[in-house]
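Subject: mismatched residue count in predicted assembly?

I count 226 residues in my input, but I want to confirm that the predicted structure covers every chain. Input:
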Amino acid sequence: GAVVSQHPSRVICKSGTSVKIECRSLDFQATTMFWYRQFPKQSLMLMATSNEGSKATYEQGVEKDKFLINHASLTLSTLTVTSAHPEDSSFYICSARALDRGGEQFFGPGTRLTVL
Amino acid sequence: RKEVEQDPGPFNVPEGATVAFNCTYSNSASQSFFWYRQDCRKEPKLLMSVYSSGNEDGRFTAQLNRASQYISLLIRDSKLSDSATYLCVVKSGGSYIPTFGRGTSLIVHP
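Triage response: the counts match. Full output below for your records.
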């Protein structure tokens, strides 16, 4: 399968700081990337869908000014959690859709964010 | 009603047992169905797609019942390494955005 990386894998930060998470497709071009959030014992919740070169589409209830998404190239999307608070602590997972592989989605390994 | 519903479990079974999970979906326009496996603190990984005719991959069998709007996953001869959370995933026709169930936890013990 295709490889998607995320960086960092784990981050601990103070309340009020901003955290940037990178998602890269390493061996394919991803026209679409997805950002999910997963709280303990809960399902993956889609936060937003981003297409290369255009603005992200946010799901209902997700603040676009708080969760900034940039999909500047076909292999990189970033999620910035601005002014993080303890309730933002969660497991953030990206996935990338590969058109040349039947549209299958490949997940990154996730980023565990802890806000103190 | 949630779009995709699963019994969260946990299902606690001995090695060698057969275990089955069901997943119901509410959107009758759903076209694509998948089972993913997620280990603790890891990303989900595709286990198998679910076809209308059903499909089997080794010890794993997936089936789709469109009339009742559910899919199932059967695991035979359970191994310790099968312990994980199994996520049901559904895509509606014309959409590439999947909807995830909350997952069913399986614990296989010696």
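The interface with chain A takes residues 8, 41-46, 87, 96-103 of chain B (CB under 8 Å). Marking this ticket as 'not a bug'.
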